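pasting for the record
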Amino acid sequence: MTIGFRILNRQRAVPADLVARFAALPVANVSDSMSRMTAGGPRLTRMHRDGVLAGVALTVKSRPGDNLMLHKAIDMAVPGDVIVVDAGGDLTNSLMGELMLAHAIRRGVAGFVLNGAIRDADQFVAMNLPVFAAGVTHRGPYKDGPGEINVPIAIDGMVVHPGDLVLGDGDGVLAVPFEAAEEVYARTAAKQDAEARQMAAIEAGTNDRSWVDAALKRLGCAMPEGI
């Protein structure tokens, strides 16, 4: 094993039907169903115009500002893959631009999560493939390595293994571990149903707000009479 220059095969992947079911759920509710313990961090922002990110993680670990292994990952990707790159969060050099994005779209890549920068930002909006990145710079990348593909990576404490589920919407990016995906989906679907009932009660003017005063009383909050 050569640490720093290695490409591995992905051994497992969340099935496509489960990816499709998750794509209809808000990332915030999935996060709640994972006890709010995991997040890609606020630096990862949406670079596309609209739409959600949902797919299977193909992971890349690279030197900051170097995209050699990212190029290879795009060539390896199968339709539905989300390429997740830990490049240290450095914004000095971009990791990809318009040409790489067009190649990825041609190969059926579902999107990107880049702990680094992009360039050609206007084209990312125009092409509208789901892409989350830490920033934008016009300075191009290097292509010398080192780097690794299909190894565990981490972004702001969010660990991503090859084959995990990767989600993203206007609230940010979240990775769901392969082995927990079915359980997390069931919890999130139940939360969605509960929120739908609560929204109906809000619209009907019957939403129970007694829990607010109960919580304040439990915490010993001083309040004037009648509120």
